[in-house]
Amino acid sequence: MMKHKYSINIIWSDEDECYLVELPEFAHQLQRYFTHGETYEEALANAQEVLELLIEDYQATGQPLPHPLEIAAY
Question: What SUPFAM superfamilies does UniProt report for this protein, alphabetically (predicted)?
Answer without folding.
Answer: TTHA1013/TTHA0281-like (SSF143100)
